[in-house]
């Protein structure tokens, strides 16, 4: 099975970190451009039109969200994968709600990051265990849901998220739940959509509380 | 400008004519901008005052003469004095328009003119000493005039103290307003400075120390990664206190403590994900100890750098999973002398009414599931 070569733009204000990521990525990913600020990143991404943008949540002149908001309307084909050292729920939720397809922490291995980029480029959602934990937290029952379609997780989605939080990979989850890998991915994508569109109190609060550190 | 008059003038808000949003000469919008109010309000005030024998029109002309355009030099001295006189005359007209008799209005006008000179609103031409003397003379004249005219009491005398108070407020008000704004700004600056100092102290005590330790022994990768990991944990706890509550009385706090110990002892990385939290009673503490043992086993036998822990806690049930992707083993063939699993994990959970399940295979690693039902059962 041949894996297509993906064109990637790195946006992070630490040169050292960008160099580290570049050296770790597998042969199926080509870094076509790099930027360290929102102001540099926006025109660069518009010009290069890459498959995936690896985006730091914290940038000196705004944040990952600012880049997504300015690029997405003009380049709907570009997909964003957020990368951060932050564990703060409001950072994670904020960037996902702005339109990122996933969120991974900077301690991720090169191999896993390459896989995450491939998955992002395919339009799938990428959930780290920690993001899965946040989502389970945010969608805990108890609060009356205004829109059950968007404000609640199905039992299957919850199950998939729990397994991600436990450290399982998609393939392992599929085997364990006797599903196809495709079905697991569609569950995760459905959760991502809910995360972006739901008006659940916890999500709007986290998004609103986003602050600079 | 260290004199009293100078300091007083410095405390006054600095009015300017506005360039943007002006209708005639930018007087109203300039005043509105300085006072942070709607320009319409200021325009309306001038328009209403115009009905008092044209006081509003005179006041507008006076203000135009007195105020400089932005970034333009101060208007000439003659122009400033003319402006001030026009303002005083318009004030007199306005007060008369409000129904105050001449006996009250003229003394007030004199006193106001004196206070204006004292406040340094017309600086420049006059030196401080002469301005001060002139101002005091005007105020005294106004007071004397007032007493002379009002020696025989009448109904309007009762109004006089009120009018004087209004005049005083007009003069002192802006000054007090400016002072309070300055105090707020100072306080904000002080808080910022404190925060910066705290941050510097924190970075120095922790991050810089760790970096120094790492530079001293860079050849021991395990030590370096242990140091880095410990530093990361500390920094996170400080940066995101709401996410890392670490209250020792809760499951989250106890578990974080156990995870930190294992990371230190064995030089592995533990990815801890948690939803919900419960109070740490005796049973929960037993669960944490069992989890700690499972982590220690993974660190010693799995041969991996990272172990995942996921805990889902609610009053009805606490479920905890410790998972590694290491070599795995056959749980049934563990020799009896390896007491860890049987004693520290399974028996410990069963004693508090919970259970432990261990799933392991050579290619998928090991997962230990700990389950603790709520106390009600």
Describe the structure.
The complex is a heterodimer of chains A (213) and B (377). Chain A has 213 residues and is an alpha/beta fold. Chain A has eleven helices and eight strands. In chain A, strands 2-1-3-6-7-8 form a six-stranded parallel sheet. In chain A, strands 4-5 form a two-stranded antiparallel sheet. In chain A, strand 6, helix 4 and strand 7 form a beta-alpha-beta unit. The mean pLDDT of chain A is 84. Chain B has 377 residues and is an alpha+beta fold. Chain B is built from twelve helices and five strands. In chain B, strands 1-2-3-5-4 form a five-stranded mixed sheet, with helices on one face. In chain B, strand 1, helix 11 and strand 2 form a beta-alpha-beta unit. Chains A and B meet through helix 6 of A and strand 1 and strand 2 of B.
Helix/sheet category of chain B = alpha+beta
Which residue ranges of chain B are poorly predicted, with pLDDT under 50 across at least 5 consecutive positions? 1-11
Outline type of chain A:
globular
Mean pLDDT of chain A: 84
Global geometry of chain B = rod-shaped
Termini distance of chain B?
Answer: 80 Å
List the strand order in the largest sheet of chain B: 1-2-3-5-4
Summarize the structure.
The complex is a heterodimer of chains A (213) and B (377). Chain A is an alpha/beta fold.
Q: What topology emerges from the helices and strands here?
A:
The complex is a heterodimer of chains A (213) and B (377).
Chain A: E1 6-11, H1 15-24, E2 29-35, H2 38-48, E3 52-56, E4 58-59, E5 62-63, H3 64-71, E6 79-84, H4 89-98, E7 102-105, H5 110-121, E8 126-127, H6 129-138, H7 148-151, H8 155-165, H9 170-177, H10 181-197, H11 201-209
Parallel strand pairs in A: 1-2, 1-3, 3-6, 6-7, 7-8
Antiparallel strand pairs in A: 4-5
Helix pairs in contact in A: 2-3, 3-4, 4-10, 4-11, 6-8, 8-10, 9-10
Chain B: H1 4-11, H2 27-35, H3 39-50, H4 55-66, H5 77-97, H6 102-119, H7 128-149, H8 155-216, H9 221-239, H10 251-266, E1 269-275, H11 282-302, E2 306-314, E3 317-324, H12 339-351, E4 355-361, E5 365-373
Parallel strand pairs in B: 1-2
Antiparallel strand pairs in B: 2-3, 3-5, 4-5
Helix pairs in contact in B: 2-3, 3-4, 4-5, 5-6, 6-7, 6-8, 8-9, 10-11, 11-12
